[in-house]
Write the structure tokens for this entry.
Amino acid sequence: MPPGSSSAFCCSGCEAAYQLVRGLGLTSYYERRCLDPAVRPLRPEEDDAAVDYSAHVHDDPQTGRSTLHLMIEGIHCAACVWLIESLLARQPGVLQARINMTTRRLTLVWTSGASDAATIIHPVLQVGYRLIPYDPARLGSDQLKHEKELLRAMAVAGFAAGNVMLLSVSIWAGHFSYMGEATRTFMHWVSALIALPAVVYSGRPFFRSALTALRAHRTNMDVPISIGVFLTSAMSLWETIRFGEHAYFDAAISLLFFLLIGRYLDMRARGRARSAAEHLLGLSAAAVTVIDSDGHRSVLPPSKVAEGMTVLVATGERVGVDGRVSDGESDIDTSLLTGETTPTAVRPGDSVFAGTLNLSAPLRVTVTAVGERTLLAEIVRMMEVAEQGRARYVALADRVARYYAPVVHLAALLTFLGWVWLTSLPWQPALLIAVSVLIITCPCALALAVPVVQVVASGRLLRHGILLKSATALERITAIDTVVFDKTGTLTLGRPELERDGGWSETDLMEAAALAATSHHPLARAIVRAAPPASPSPGVIEHPGCGLQWGEVRLGSRRWVGAPDVIDVTDVTDDPTGPGGPELWLARPGVAPIRFAFTDALRSDAADTVAALGKMGLRIELLSGDRLPTVRGVASALGIDRWQAGCSPAEKCARLAELAAEGRHVLMVGDGLNDAPALAAAHVSLSPSTAVDVSQTAADVVFQGLRLAPVVEVIAVARKADRLVKQNFAMSFLYNLVTVPMAVLGMVTPLIAAVAMSSSSIIVIANALRLARTRPR
Amino acid sequence: MTNLLLLIPVALLLGLAGLGAFLWALRSGQFDDLDGAAHRILFDDDDKPTQEPPPRC
């Protein structure tokens, strides 16, 4: 929001945020930040449950400091980082507040006793960021450790490769001009001294992986690499001892260096995959208010709540347990679980589920299931089972390695035997030639072929706001022939929008907005969004399930407002959804009631995207948890022939299993929690970034923005990447075809090996860079 | 030859020093947030830097 007078704000929350920022003298935030119009704007959410931060604080009595680790949502540029850090640094008692922009995590350290967690982070929450505490010991540390190990190995390999190459160039020069044997041997020994420890240290990731594969009676890419490096080093050492002419230390260590670069880039490009555990943590971090039989209230974490207890769910709070309503009437937003945007009315005796949002009035709920036994946990479990099934996919590179390794080793063996038997060469030189065959077939280019294309593809997609979460996602996308869409939040924007059908005027809208401003109901929110900024009327009463009342003016469902029935209505219910979709009626004394209609708007390019996918030769299906008439309308608007409505998460998975049994490979696009198991069960899956966190985790690719075009983009990039990978493999094999005969005939020297290795790697990388150039449309 | 006997060890030592510096930087957490580091140079704060060292991960 631009700084200005108070009437320029959309809501009181945003106004308070601006006042806070200005009061602390941090207004340069507004000048610095870059707003991406496609990303959801920051807005202080009033319906966020109170999170118990103190449960996650680590107190260190020795240094007198308390530490809290938080994940932050809502950061989209460096100015946000600056704003949050400045806000926190000004709190008394804070010793350090540092945000890691790459992982979006905040580490907060303050003097124990000087303040508490909730007070310190309150300004940040007020401005509109969401903070979720987590336990750093549990999350993401494995990948971080692996990344650091790769970086260290790469550093050592780089240092060694550089120095050994220094010496090798001298030796090669010495072949052309006179270099005495003593000098050459001395150089060889120094190379050995540098290269051998470096090979042992930097080769560990490869050796470990190769041993694991061999123990499982398989081969992967690392087996020929490990064997090659080991034999090369051993042979070179032996040659050095023998005052021999050729030593291949530079080949061994340079090979490791290039491969480690490829591995490291690959790991970074994959992004920080967040585990399912992390997000369940976020969803269940909310504390639950328990009421005893004598009316005493206590706030407990969900793990301490037992069945049969009575829980109080306040207005705007997320229900933390599965249960049955014992007292109170309200509307519940079940979009998280079912995908329906229209809230359901609940009365005593109705069931409510953990994860849904209580909109209108406080409820007392008797607990029937908590923690692992809730529907929420059930869905996440289904998802984890599906994820494990998918982990068995073998990447293309590993499949190539299955054939590559035996062939190369066979070739080396035959070379050795051939030289010994056919030409009766002593076994030492024959071994030399055999090992040079192994070196020249170095999988340098082969091992780089896929990672380099992956890195370039990820980079290009990232620039379009598409995040690749899985390393094999692109490969799997090229195999698909069917696309299955979810409706709410995927094909549509996921929230009701006010229709401008001419049935009301701007003044009507402003009056309605004045009543609607204090309600959490999605339809009321939609009115407030569509209206020019208005200050809420004081004294508005909300009647759950019916509407809002301010004196004589009423805004709500048709029945309650007393509006006349529309002529072609066949069944009249209290359902706020009238024929043709959700609606609100505004009734004022002396004026005819006015109807506001709402639709869940389709994404602007949904129809174009569906058409483009059809042209690509893909079959399109729609599976939704929403009601039949709505789904039918959307399917016909987009031209989708196959669709199903009212699908539960299990039914979606069943449909995917049917398609898989037909031999089809499915790309699933979905966002709600009810899609998460299906996202994990599909061959490959996409999710918009506005999706629930767990679904973002289950999906292989996450895309930002309000448009559906990224789906087409990802498929196009995946197909191009596949072409380039195949070209790279072809070039690697061509290179081998040319050089292997040379090696077999004993013509290869370390110089030739070095040149061949480098040139093949460079060609493969240059080819992959072709992906980075976007063709002008 | 005597030159080599001096120069090669010197080159190695310098290389080792560089490697040591890189490993120290890695251990003290300087490579954890490359995006953040790129943007932080553009912050113009007049605040004093905090006394405490960055956290260990």
